[in-house]
Amino acid sequence: MRNLMIILILISSIAGAQANLVPNPGFEDGVGANALPAGGWWLYLADGAPNVSVDAAVAHDGKASVKLAAKDTARFTVVSAPFAVTPYDEIRFEAFVRVENLKGGKDPIGIALSFRDASGKVFDRNFVYPTTPLSGAWTSISGTANVPATAVTGEIFLQFNHASGAAWFDDVSAVVANPVSMTLAETAKPFVGEQTITALLANRADSPLTGSLRLTLGKQVSEAPVSVAAKTESRVPLTINMKAVGNQDYTLELLNPSGVSERKFTGKFNAVAPLIVYPACPCYHAIGEGDGATRLDVQVSLHPSRLVGARLEIKIADSTGKLIDTGTVDASKGGIVGRAFKVPVDSKGDFLATIRLLDSSGKQISDGQADIHVRPRADSRIIMGADGYPRVHGKPQFPLGLYSAGRFPEMGQAGFSFSHNYGITTGEAADLINPNDIHLKELLDQNAEAGITMMVELPRKAIEKGKWEQVRRRIETFRNHPGLGYWGSEERVARGEGPLKNIAGVYRIVKEMDPNHPFVLGDTRDVVNKIPVERSFFFPDSMMDVGVWWYYPIPMEPNPEQPAPEIKSDLTFIPPNWLTNYTGNKPLWIAIQSFKQPRIDGRYPTRAEYRLMCYLPVVYGIKGLAFYTGSGQLDYYKKASGILNNPEQADWEYVKQLIREMRDLDPVLTAPVVSGKITKSPADSPVDFIVKDQGGKLTVIAVNRAKKTIKMRFAGPGITGKQIAVHGENRTLPVTRNAFTDVFEPYAVHIYMIGE
């Protein structure tokens, strides 16, 4: 389907290299949907109250332009309808702009050429901004971009960025700069051996194209003559030999009759192993549940000449080596091949499936293994209590996690309870088995060995497209694994990647297939920029067991590259609206910052800030907490800046101490909240607190949100005894008339153990 799409794109664009690809580029076609310019132009709103209109009184050329305006600071983009693009083309894009009363920070006005892949997802953006100050005179903004290999369509962005005032855009264009388009209509198959690929040439010029195509793969060179008439296209076959498993770099060049390179691009072909063994489904069984039915599937990738007569030999043995099942499976068609069998589940057990891929003569081509285990249900069971805290081995737990995690033994020793991995979320929706499940099995094994569990995100593209076979397979494979803690899904609706009904669908499947693990949803009830600023109704409550969202406030100082109309001298932490006003019936978790923001003054939190971000959400009632992120998040300089990317600079050792402190406070953190027994003064101070009751023993957790020293007094009938221990600080405070006082340094957290 993708090859056909590329061919159609090339044929449709042969009319000339200088044709404008943008629909209604001069805004002359009037008004379309939602009062926006006709021709498919649409509005992406980030924040503010924009006014977008077709202005028939102002034009650079022709009779109209599009006006972008905002009375107060706003951030939004007017986007063209998508237009077909050809991989590796060079596109020059341009727009004319003029402004009036424009106020903003760095780069308030710009344009971009963005690209979407075959799934419709924007994955590449190329922004350009004016090189001279804008005024009431028309100014050209232009740039060039190379079409990525996986791009199918492009769009032009007209950007209004953190600004107020008005800007007019006109005569928008996107023009293919090269007269010849060259791409692969048929790429390499993923097996070792000789095969033919097909290059596709489109000649936009008014004269014939002659020369040759040369493909270089390692030390191999495959060359073929080409002759393409004006305004036509041609398919050119080339022979290659994939000699080894793995990625192999290639170069495709168009040479003129003199042998000079006119156009070229590089890429990678990938050959996979002849036999890839997926985890057994399920890889763990619970003792006494079901009949032990298990399925083993493998991926067979062989050259067609080697597939004839190919077969699998599968043997299942217990931990003593005793065979409990054996059989052969026809593998002559390649692709996914499998077999069902049963293991005894009446008691604890370990089993091993050995797989041999044989050719027609019985000679082994490749082999592999898959392990299967039977364990007590208690080893893989987490349920949510009525108080909103999960029960792990029957005890309430305050979950403490790390996104994009690693260093599992250290995490386990510190007291983390769950990890997370973004790599296992990818994969094409149409695949029956997600290829990342192999790596997921390794991660779950490592988590279980370290004594922690994993929040496993279900495949993102499958959720977006509602392709439930892949989702069901992952759940069935791992639902009894002792390394599994929670199922999850993140921001498919919030980012506009999928409809809300698909979140309802995945939640229904999780509840149907695995009642022993909660579903954690990091998503909203609508595209996030459509939800009002007042966000008490933020999550789709009925589609989750737990809701989680993110909070990245560091640094709070004004960004030197953006306007800062409001500067607070005390730099007080303001908890997010969705946290302070949450009205949902399901427990809420928070993910706090442990990376550098991608701004020029980005930094890691200080120790005081880490501790404040951990305990302030507790004061507002959250039931679990995670650090975002362990690795991968990019900083201003495009370098990975998660806490595990720079553990010394990010103070990983302190974070582990902080986690151990919180884990030791599990009985306090999961205790009921009481009110009315303690008050604070000054009442309007930015010191927030909560009172927890462990069977009559009260604990006060108090947090100073301000970057200034504050003296506080706490009083009430809940304060008893002669003195109060301040947890972790090796000091006590005297009690006088059911009250005590203490001093809070900037961002300080104090935990007061009041006693019986």
Q: How many beta-strand elements?
A: 43
Task: Specify the structural class.
Answer: mainly beta
Helix content: 10-25%
- Main sheet overview: 9 strands, antiparallel
State the end-to-end CA separation: 71 Å
Strand content: 35-45%
The overall average pLDDT, rounded, is: 93
Structural commentary:
The N terminus is likely disordered. The chain contains eleven helices and 43 strands. Helix 3 packs parallel to helix 4, helix 3 crosses helix 10 and helix 6 packs parallel to helix 7. The longest helix has 14 residues. By secondary structure, the chain is mainly beta.
Write the layout of secondary structure elements.
Elements: H1 2-12, E1 42-47, E2 50-55, E3 65-79, E4 83-84, E5 90-104, E6 109-116, E7 122-128, E8 139-146, E9 153-176, E10 180-186, E11 193-203, E12 209-217, E13 220-228, E14 232-242, E15 246-255, E16 261-271, E17 275-277, E18 284-286, E19 293-300, H2 304-307, E20 311-318, E21 323-330, E22 335-342, E23 349-358, E24 364-375, E25 382-384, E26 390-392, E27 395-396, E28 400-402, H3 408-414, E29 418-420, H4 437-450, E30 453-457, H5 460-465, H6 468-478, E31 484-490, H7 500-513, E32 519-522, E33 546-551, H8 577-580, E34 588-593, H9 607-619, E35 624-628, H10 652-664, H11 666-669, E36 679-681, E37 687-694, E38 697-704, E39 710-715, E40 723-726, E41 731-734, E42 739-744, E43 749-755
Parallel strand pairs: 18-24, 28-29, 28-35, 29-30, 30-31, 31-32, 32-33, 33-34, 34-35
Antiparallel strand pairs: 1-3, 2-3, 3-9, 4-9, 5-8, 5-9, 6-7, 6-9, 10-11, 11-14, 12-13, 12-15, 15-16, 17-19, 19-22, 20-21, 20-23, 23-24, 25-26, 26-27, 36-39, 37-38, 38-43, 39-42, 40-41, 40-43
Helix pairs in contact: 3-4, 3-10, 6-7
